[in-house]
Amino acid sequence: MNKLALAAAFAVIGLPALAQDAAFGIWKTQIDDGAYAHVTMKQCGQKVCGFITRTFNSSGEYQSPNIGKPIVINMEPKGGGAYEGSVWRPSNDKIYIGKMQVNGNALSLKGCVAGGLLCANQNWTRIQ
Questions:
Q1: What is the pLDDT of residue 4?
Q2: Of 26, 51, 93, 120, which has the highest C-beta tally within 10 A?
Q3: pLDDT of residue 2
Q4: Under a CB-based contact definition with an 8 Å cutoff, are residues 66 and 52 in contact?
Q5: Measuring CA to CA, which residue among 104, 99, 97 is closest to residue 125?
Q6: Which one-letter DSSP state was computed for residue 47?
Q7: Which pLDDT tens digits describe the chain residue by residue (128 residues)?
Q8: Three-state DSSP class for 14?
Q9: Global confidence as pTM
Q10: For residues 7 and 17, is the Cβ–Cβ distance under 8 A?
Q11: How far is CA 61 from CA 53, 75, 90, in A?
């Protein structure tokens, strides 16, 4: 079934047309505090969530206690590859106001505090 027919089928039966969402897949994070992760982005309800599936440091892959935890939380598609939701930073165990922009195999993730006045960015690359 082609993408248009699949989206039409979802619309007819009342399901969100997220099955072809550009954010879905596996992404490699930027290094943060000496480590990086692979994050699997998938549908969660009518939104997009990302879960840590593998972790790496300077010695290679390791079994972090963060594997399986959500790092991208309830990102709502806003159109044009933009999303809004929450982001968890494992190194300080804080959740931030999150914005995400997907452009092909590049993902820009922003976590903000103080109503968006203070933000930190990461750029992720698609692995799969």
A1: 41
A2: 51
A3: 45
A4: yes
A5: 104
A6: E
A7: 444 443 333 333 334 444 468 999 999 999 988 999 999 999 999 999 999 999 999 999 999 999 999 999 999 999 999 999 999 998 889 999 999 999 999 999 999 987 777 889 999 999 99
A8: coil
A9: 0.81
A10: yes
A11: 11, 27, 17
Amino acid sitting at position 85 = G
CA dist list (Å): 11 to 7, 24, 43, 53, 80: 6, 19, 16, 31, 19
Terminal CA-to-CA distance of the chain, rounded, Å?
21
Calpha distance 3→11 (Å, rounded):
12
Tell me whether residue 121 is exposed, middle or buried, using C-beta atoms within 10 angstroms of its C-beta: 0 to 12, 13 to 18, 19 or more.
exposed
SS3 content of the chain, % helix, strand, coil (to 5): 10, 60, 30
With a CB cutoff of 8 Å and minimum separation 6, the contacts of 84 are 75, 76, 78, 98, 99, 100
